[in-house]
Design brief:
The protein has one helix at residues 2-20; strands at 31-38, 44-50, 55-64, 72-83, 89-97, 100-104. Strands 1-2-3-4-5-6 form a six-stranded antiparallel beta sheet, with no helix packed on it. It has a domain at 29-104. By secondary structure, the protein is an alpha+beta fold. InterPro entries: CHIT_BIND_RR_consensus, Cuticle_Struct_Prot, Insect_cuticle.
Amino acid sequence: MTGDIGVLILLGGTEAVVTAMPQKLDEPIPILKQSSNISPEGAYEYSYETGNGIAADETGVLHKAANPEDGSVVVAEGRYSWTAPDGKLYSVTYKADENGFQVFGDHIPKK
């Protein structure tokens, strides 16, 4: 029984030391480019690019809905891309409107 208690104390002490060890901090990723613009009419655009290969941009505009009772809808179109750890570039384009969200990319399975 005392052997079991000794093992528990040893394991608890080891866990405390391991969890108290300093953790490696990731390097900050720089923002290389960033822009945004919002018009008084409700249209917008933004884009950014990071130092680790991530990039995105989107535009949005107000359109009158097909059904006048629905008022206006925002139609957004954009794209984003990133570089995977293996060096492969992935790109996604999309559109969101009154018909829903549609996404496209070579790596996305087709129906």
